[in-house]
Amino acid sequence: MPEIGLGIGREQGTYQGRIREWLFWYDQDGNKYQTPEEVNAQQQQQLEQTQQQLQELLARLQQQGIDPNLL
Fold first, then answer.
1. In this structure, how many other beta carbons lie within 10 angstroms of the beta carbon of residue 61?
2. What is the 3-state secondary structure (H, E, C) of 16-69?
3. pTM, whole model, 2 decimals?
C-alpha cells in the first residue's frame, strides 16, 4: 500500500508452542513494526539494563566513601 506507506509481510514464528506463519505490518522501507509483546520485551530489557547501571553507579559511589542518600 504505497499510498499510505504500509506493507504486509509474512514470517514464520512460534506462539504458545505452535509454529506457523504470521502476517506483520511493514513500513515503506521494509522495516517490520513491532508487536506489543516485542515492544514490552524491549522495554523490559532496557529497564533491566538501567537498573544494572544504577546499581553499578551506587557501588562506585560507596567505594569512594560517598553515601548517595546524603547528596
1. 13
2. CCEEEEEEEEEECCCCECCCHHHHHHHHHHHHHHHHHHHHHHHHHHHHCCCCHH
3. 0.65
For residue 9, what is its C-alpha cell?
509481510
5 φ/ψ sector (left φ>0, alpha ψ -120 to 50, else beta): left
Q: State residue 54's pLDDT score.
A: 96
Which residues, in sequence order, are bridge partners of residue 22? Answer: 11
Residues facing 19 on adjacent strands: 14
Residue 58 is predicted with a pLDDT of 94
Alpha-carbon distance of 13 to 42, in angstroms, equals 18
